[in-house]
TrEMBL record:
Coiled coil: none
Transmembrane segments: 29-56
Gene: Tnfsf9
Gene Ontology cellular-component annotations: plasma membrane
Name of the protein this chain belongs to: Tumor necrosis factor ligand superfamily member 9
MF-aspect GO terms: tumor necrosis factor receptor binding
Occurrences of domain THD (ranges): 86-239
């Protein structure tokens, strides 16, 4: 018997399709899945095309939002480091090592000597006078030459800063060096310290010699002279013009 429908019985009756075979159902499912994949891929491409103009290029900085201020560390340039200003450099006149206040070369024509406006040297009192108050750095440099290398004398030499009006901080750290016998090498030492100075502050340097024999002068050693080698010198650097409310004194 044939399984085909009989259209001659009732031509106007609705036609009922035959059930789909497994092969047809598999084909219809494959076509639907392919259409879904095409739709998803197309949507992703459209999204990328729409969003791409708003994404920053690699290495570029995003544009700042309206109304917001953006600061960058690279846009803030640190200021130059301020170097201390040399205001005075005096060279020692003394040659012989002996206890007492040092005398200084202060004339501008001498190589190495420097005095800025507002600073003067009182030759009678052997004092450097600072007219303007402020924060300064004072440096002492001691240079000694061994003129008798065969001498067995030893000892110690020191430089101490004195201020008028006095300050306790000025004498707390004297500069001292040891003298060794049988040495032909020069001896040197340096010390710097910050000080707050008042108007018309006066500075002087006291030389002290300590000998095992108890003498007050050392014949085997002398202060180095600027004509032959670095000399003993007093230097003053201006750090700032800030002055505390109180006056510094002992």
């Amino acid at each position: 018997m044939s399984s085909r429908p009989d259209f001659s019985a009732d031509p106007e009756a609705p036609w009922t399709s035959a059930p789909l075979s497994p092969a047809c159902r598999l084909l219809r499912w494959g076509l639907g899945a392919a259409a879904l994949l095409v739709a998803v891929a197309g949507g992703a491409a459209i999204g990328t095309w729409v969003v791409a103009p708003y994404l920053a290029a690699p290495g570029a900085s995003p544009a700042p939002s309206r109304g917001l201020h953006r600061s960058s560390a690279s846009s803030v340039q640190p200021g130059p480091t301020e170097e201390p200003e040399l205001t005075a450099r005096l060279l020692a006149r003394n040659v012989t090592l002996g206890n007492g206040t040092l005398s200084w070369y202060s004339h501008q024509g001498i190589a190495g000597v420097h005095l800025s406006p507002g600073l003067t040297y009182d030759e009678h009192r052997q004092e450097l006078v600072v007219a303007k108050a402020g924060h300064y750095q004072v440096c002492l440099h001691l240079e000694l030459s061994h003129v008798l290398p065969t001498s067995r004398d030893s000892g110690k030499v020191s430089l101490a800063l004195h201020l008028e009006p006095p300050q306790a901080e000025a004498t707390a750290h004297p500069l001292a060096v040891d003298l060794s016998p049988y040495s032909s090498l020069p001896v040197q030492g340096s010390r710097c310290q910050p000080l707050q100075m008042a108007d018309l502050q006066r500075l002087s340097v006291h030389l002290s010699v300590y000998l095992p024999t108890g003498g007050s002068k050392h014949q085997a050693w002398q202060l180095a002279q600027p004509a032959t080698q670095p000399a003993t010198k007093l230097e003053l650097f201006r750090l700032s013009a800030d002055v505390p409310d109180r006056r510094l004194s002992t």
